[in-house]
Amino acid sequence: MLAQLLRRLLLVQTLAGAALGYWLWGSVLGALALALLVPVVTMLLADVLTALITRAPEPWHDWWRALGGEMVAGVVVFLLRQPWERRAPRYQAATSNTPRVPVVLVHGYLCNHRIWDTTATQLRAQGHAVFAVDLEPVFASIDDYAPILESAVTSALLNSGQTQVALVGHSMGGLAIRAWMRKHGTARVARVLTLGTPHAGTQLAKGSRTPNGLQMRWGSPWLATLAAGEDDALRNLLRVAITPQDNIVYPQRPQTLPGITPTVFPGIGHLQMCLDPDVNAWVRRELADLPPTLDGATP
Questions:
Q1: pLDDT tens-digit profile of 183-237?
Q2: Helices in 138-297 by DSSP H: which ranges?
Q3: Which residue, of 14, 29, 231, 289, has the greatest Cβ tally within 10 A?
């Protein structure tokens, strides 16, 4: 599982930092300092590198703002949240008495359900039951994740007593939702929101050799086939959010589908979309007008 992989990676980085610190300064304090710094510095350097590679001809002040936000998001998601989850994903009831449509949250590449902690808490307070999935194996075909989404949708409907769900996908998660709809249809879908999803693919994946990485390459045949099988009725269910400073999915502005005008959030990074207050407010607004489908009622 991803959490275990991240814990092992952090252990290697921490031990390497401790060894380097002791070699440089010959003290336990020096070893401890670098043991703590190396994982953080590694994350920050990765953010700088991807931000430079993917920089679009957009305002520099938005680029700097996105870089700072992505650095904070990277530390929160990859160092403080995702490595430490040992519980399986589960249905979580709403914390408000106002019933709303249940929501299935679908993370992206190299992430797990903990990236949704902020979003899930806010959605539950608004009256939405939530099921945040884990897409595993980590390196698999996106089509192979359809049973995971089907299980989550079934659980959300059974536990909430409703007949439709909304689905929110970040990055690859948006493609997983579209692949699930290709297999299972849209009868149980009230709405789909995608955040930073590579609907047109990303050039950052050109060196990938994993099945899902290959599928997310810029203009990949898999993406073309997926889009060709979708009609206007399906696309009418979708709402797309992008950021022009996305440091993973680029080119940034073409990341939408025919007939869909994306909502643009400037000055934020890729991971940051799941933590950003404005993006989360947009998610809540897009879902707030969906009537609950209790006791078999149709919207």
A1: 999 999 999 999 999 999 999 999 899 999 999 999 999 999 999 999 999 999 9
A2: 146-160, 172-184, 211-215, 221-228, 232-235, 277-288
A3: 14
User: Do 2 and 138 contact (CB within 8 A), yes or no?
Assistant: yes
Which residues 6+ apart lie within 8 Å of 122 measured at CB?
280, 284
Q: Which domain holds residue 181?
A: 91-288
With H, G, I as helix, E, B as strand and everything else as coil, classify residue 134.
Answer: coil
State residue 268 phi and psi, 5-degree precision. Answer: -130, 155
Residues 204/219, Cβ–Cβ less than 8 Å: no
Question: What CATH number does residue 129 fall under?
Answer: 3.40.50.1820
Which has the closest alpha carbon to 257: 187, 177, 190? 177
Summarize pLDDT for 83-120 with one digit per residue, the tens: 998 888 999 999 998 899 999 999 999 999 999 999 99
Task: Give, for 263, the enclosing helix (H) or strand (E).
Answer: strand 263-264
Task: Kindly state the tokens that stand for 295.
Answer: 């006791």
The yes-or-no verdict on residue 298 having pLDDT over 50 is no
Domains identified in the chain, total number? 2
User: Which residue's entry shows tokens 């000055």?
Assistant: 267
